[in-house]
Each structure stands twice: as structure tokens, then as C-alpha cells.
Amino acid sequence: MISKKWSFMVMMVAVFALTGCASTPTTSTGASGSPASSPAASSAPSTAKPAGGASVLDEIKSRGKLVVGVKYDTKLFGLKNPTGGEVEGFDVDMAKALAKEILGDEKKIELKEVTSKTRIPMLDNKEIDMIVATMTITDERKKQVEFSDVYFKAGQSLLVKKGSPIKSVADVKKGTKVLAVKGATSVANIKAKAPEATVLEFDNYQDAFSALKAGQGDTLTTDNAILYGMMAQDPNFVVVGEPFTDEPYGIAMKKGETALQAAVNDSLKKLQSSGEYDKIYKKWIGEAPSK
Ligand code: GLU
């Protein structure tokens, strides 16, 4: 059963994702710029190739496999099933759908684990062709990678133990211990909102959640969509307050790979018009627990 608030967010996301209506992302740097949904329009022509070699799109086609960085620690988006070993979630299904669009077969894919901290270095090292991993489009990151159009819209929120005195970000003050993950926008965002709080950074979301459960912090902060996944893992924890940032997710590709960027944006549009995007959305986000 989905709560009214969550279903409202789902509806908003379903309406705004991929339609070019997303707002400019909020980051702690306060950077402003073009709407998050228009990176393709502002990039070089899609025929451009990086100097000194085949484009990543050419490489993907000749190797016949798409290598995608996904989360292994994030329920609902990319979580490694501890029993079967399968990696599952919205981002994983999106990645498979992209493999089907680009290579004609969703099985022509290899998934590699990324964390918020390792995802851009792994892309730069060419260990992966793209990142599909709850990654917010920000102006800062646009300097390092090419982003697709927005494919999901989240907002930063707080997870607390039921009964916590923290009811919203206004209650995060001096002395409050906030748990977050290295390399996530959440760290700078919470420091901007609550400069006096203590922020403890972990390598991945399952470690941060374990620390919250062990009482090492008062609250865990990241995107509400990720926090709802944690609520589903342990109902003693609850998401509180309104989201206090915009976190529009984009698929990231290596800087200069504009042919791949165009192919991904094209695929996203096809997935939306075929109804495949909605199917994937309902499968994962419809699972969100009631508040
Ligand atoms: N969407 C935010 C980010 O890109 C937080 C989630 C994450 O750590 O991936 O940093």
C-alpha cells in the first residue's frame, strides 16, 4: 500500500521524468545553469568523436556488450540479492532496457558495482561505458561527464528511527550526528542546510544504514527514493520531513561521448513512448512502503 505522499511523488515523477520539465538541480555550491533536462541540447553535435580513437558507442557495438556501472547497495535501484547473487532494481532494469535498445538484446550487458565515490573514476578509467546509479545531474558533475536527459526525479530527505525527535531538516542542529555516503550530493547539501551538525561519511549505503541501526548516528540523509528502500528493509525506520533538494537522475557517460549520449537519449524516448519505462517504474517504485 503506497501512502498518499509517496504516491503523489510517484505521480510527479512519472509526469516530469523525461518530459523536459525538471527543475535545475540544487547543490551545496548553489550553482545555477540550464535546466537539468537539456544537456544534450547544449552539447557538441552527436557525430563528434573523441580525439584519437573510436567512440565508446562504436566500441559497445563491436564488442556486442554494454558495460554498466550500477549500485549493489541500494534497494529499489540496484541491490545485490544476498542469496541468488542477482543485482536488481529500477536502475538495473533501465540499464537492461538500454542494452535492448542499443544492441537488440537485454542480455548483452555486463553489470559492475559502483558506489557514489567510485562511479566517476570507473567511467574515466573506461571500466564501464555508463553509470546508471541514482546519480544526480549537477552543474559540477557536468564538467566531468556527459549526462542523459532526466530519467527519475528524487529529493533529499532524512531517515530516522521511529519516535526520533528529528521531524525535519530544521531539527538537524549542532550536536546532531548525520550519516551520509562519500561522493553523494547529500553530504554538501546537508552541510549547507545544517552547517553545525556533524556529518559522518560511509563508503556505501548499506554501511551507513547499519551504522544508523547500531545507533552511531541520529539520522541518515540521502535521496528519499533510496530512504524508502531502507524503510522497506527495516520498518523501525521512517522517512521524515519534506524533501529539501531536487535530485534529478541522469545516466552518465564519459566526457565527449556525445554519440553515445544521443543514442541513450533516443533510447529513453523510445522506452517512454513504448510504455516500457512505465512498466519498470511501476515494478520498482510501486513497491515503496506506506509511511
Ligand atoms: N543522487 C545523489 C547523488 O547523485 C545521492 C544518491 C547517490 O549517492 O547516488 O549523489
Question: Short summary of the structure?
Answer:
This protein is of the alpha/beta class and 291 residues long. It has helices spanning 4-16, 56-63, 90-103, 119-124, 139-142, 185-193, 205-213, 224-233, 258-274, 276-285, and strands at residues 66-70, 73-74, 78-80, 87-88, 109-113, 130-131, 145-147, 152-154, 156-161, 177-181, 198-202, 219-223, 237-240, 247-249, 252-254. It contains ten helices and 15 strands.
Write the layout of secondary structure elements.
Elements: H1 4-16, H2 56-63, E1 66-70, E2 73-74, E3 78-80, E4 87-88, H3 90-103, E5 109-113, H4 119-124, E6 130-131, H5 139-142, E7 145-147, E8 152-154, E9 156-161, E10 177-181, H6 185-193, E11 198-202, H7 205-213, E12 219-223, H8 224-233, E13 237-240, E14 247-249, E15 252-254, H9 258-274, H10 276-285
Parallel strand pairs: 1-5, 1-6, 10-11, 10-12
Antiparallel strand pairs: 2-3, 3-4, 6-15, 7-15, 8-14, 9-12, 9-13
Helix pairs in contact: 3-9, 3-10
The protein binds glutamic acid (GLU).
Glutamic acid is lined by residues 116, 133-136, 181, 184-186, 222-223, 226, 247.
Protein name: Glutamine transport system substrate-binding protein
Domain Ionotropic glutamate receptor C-terminal: 65-287
Family: Belongs to the bacterial solute-binding protein 3 family.
